[in-house]
Amino acid sequence: MRGHIVFAIGILLLLTLCYRIGQELEIIYVSALFAVVLMPIVRRITSLKIRGYRPSAGVAVVVLLFAGLAAFAIFFTLGLPPVLRDLHSFLNEAPKRIPDAVARVKHWPIAEKLNVDDIAARVENFAGSVGGYLVNAIPGWLSHILDLLTTIFLCIYFILEGDHAYDFLLSLCPVAEQHRLDLTLRRAELKMSKWLFGQGLLMLVMGVTFTVVFALLHVRYFLLLGVMMGIFNIIPIAGGAFTITISLIVAALDSWGKMLAVLAVYLIYLNIENAVLTPRIMRSSLNMMGLTVLIALLVGTSLAGIVGALVAVPTAALITVLLEEYAVQR
């Protein structure tokens, strides 16, 4: 009885500790998950032979980091300058254009009912409040950036020392079950790695397609919007909805016809992706029902927001493999 009481108290203390450090556990889990997903790429780099030289895991990590930094540098160098240039010109011309726009609106017959001066004052107050919100939100954004950097560094350490941590955690299980659990986890690792390959392929197809479409339709910031369409596609459903909304707003700044054309192309692409690309790419890699993916997205988003949606599908793949091995009765 005394042993059961001590065990129950230990479980309560452990749950309390997990609740208090929930954010840190979330960062550790996301880092470990992406380390598992990226390990096949690291192994592929370390298996290369260049004149008898075989890169180590540290060299492979450095190559991945430089590749990511180079991609972001090229993206920001080519995509951001047009946005910053237009934003600068807008901020310079806004004080001149707003009074002219208010004066024109006052000549409308309905202007007296609208109370244009009151609306203009509210707009100015709103702009001031938005500016204050942005200033106050800077510490929050800095904390998110710090969390992102922590996740990246933890992911690197998991890649470099993950095998030792894996062996240690495996040694905590009974010896008779270690081999079975090892095979199950390696099967889950293979499934999650296939998810990364399939998701990366879908992101590449969407990014290239919409970059070309936006360029042909002469949508401003076509490179920035096209790359965003590809990157945010890693978040199922929500990522695509967010980026297409921004793209439609930018297209509407030029003309309604251009906005309708972008919407039509997106709907056509969405049907092609759901009917052809996703079944052939993701079903062959994950072999999970669409219902499972949707439930995983709902639960992940509810628990951890965007981060939860990002890791929901690979987590569902891990849980599916564990359930198939230990719970499903055949």
Could you walk me through the main structural features you see in this protein, from its secondary elements to its overall organization?
By secondary structure, the protein is an all-alpha fold. The protein has 2 domains: about 130 residues, no CATH class; about 160 residues. The protein contains 10 helices and no strands. Helix 2 crosses helix 3, helix 6 runs antiparallel to helix 9 and helix 8 packs antiparallel against helix 9. It is globular and about 85 Å long. The two termini are about 40 Å apart. The model has no long low-confidence stretch (mean pLDDT about 80).
Features:
10 helices; globular; 330 residues; mainly alpha; 2 domains
State the low-pLDDT regions, or none. none
Give the ordered list of helices and strands: HHHHHHHHHH
Rg over C-alpha atoms, rounded to the nearest angstrom? 26 Å
Helix/strand/pairing category: mainly alpha
- What is the percent of helical residues? over 70%
Q: What's the rounded overall pLDDT mean? A: 78
Tally of structural domains: 2
The shape, in one word, is: globular
Describe, in short, the structure shown:
With 330 residues, this protein is an all-alpha fold. The chain contains 10 helices and no strands.
Question: Topology of this protein?
Answer:
Layout lengths: L1 H19 L1 H25 L10 H50 L4 H4 L1 H56 L3 H42 L5 H10 L6 H15 L3 H31 L3 H37 L4
Helix pairs in contact: 2-3, 2-5, 2-6, 3-5, 3-7, 6-7, 6-9, 6-10, 7-8, 8-9
